[in-house]
Amino acid sequence: MSIAAFVAAALIIAVAGVLLTARAERLAVVTGLGELLTGAVLIGAVTSLSGLVTSITAAHAGYASLAVANSLGGIAAQTAFLAIADMAYRRANLEHAAASEANLQQAAVLVVLLALPMAAMARPELALFGVHPVSLLIVAGYLFGLRLIDAAHERPMWHPRMTSETEREKKSKGAAPRGSTTALWLSFAVLAVLVAGAGWTLARAAISLSAHAGISETLAGGVLTAITTSLPELVVAIAAVRRGALALAVGDILGGNAFDVLFLAAADVAYRDGSIYAAVSTTEVFWVALAILLVGVLLVGLLRREKHGIANIGFESVLVLVLYVLGVTALVTA
Fold it and tell me: Domains in the chain, start-ordered, CATH in brackets?
């Protein structure tokens, strides 16, 4: 029953991710946010709803390692997914084609946000009413980061060198009629509810599998639920790249990753046996380090902008995939 529920929830998350992609691109035009901000805020948050609900449900049930590993493992998996999306874009290396100040800003903000939970795990005894002060800093840092990304998008202080392979972000083409906009938002909200409900089911199934199948919380959260709840990001990224919406693809992954760090703050509040950072092991510290490493490599790729790598896949993308596989292998065999 647990396996069946897990698979069913995974299918719902994947299918909803496909449907969310088309609606996101239309909302980028209707709202005037543009592809990058739509990917970073709207899609990044909504496609992460299942993961958020998974972490909160696991933390409330007392499964701290599963909740934390789900968040950090999801960030690592989604960064690797961007390398997979690179394979779907045949014209050039994705880091080259989607270069922008806002994308670099997102990656830098993400590294800063990831450093905060690592600091909390080093000093877990600092807690007020069972909530670590770092959880509040994560929320504040995320909101401040959105302001920085918006400023980089609207008033960039510098621009990347434009080449024949560099894709310019699609601009708004005007608002849609009120009726169609309402229907669009309504369908978007329904899909979001489905994704969130699937996340709750996924968490309960993962807890059951961890208890009865002998799977550790870290592997259940960092690999099983993390990859499954990240499926919408993979679907959105590949679909967006194939449509030529490169800014949306990169913004979806990096924005989703930043939103995933918020899982830790929410899980800390939901975990009632003290600070959740005091209940995790060194394995979760490894997940943080792996996530920072992968995002750092991606940031180097965005800066270096290799035009054509191996079969149009950049060296950094290949390195991200290799490091992710080695990291997961090290955890599985530990």
Answer: 2-158+175-333 (1.20.1420.30)
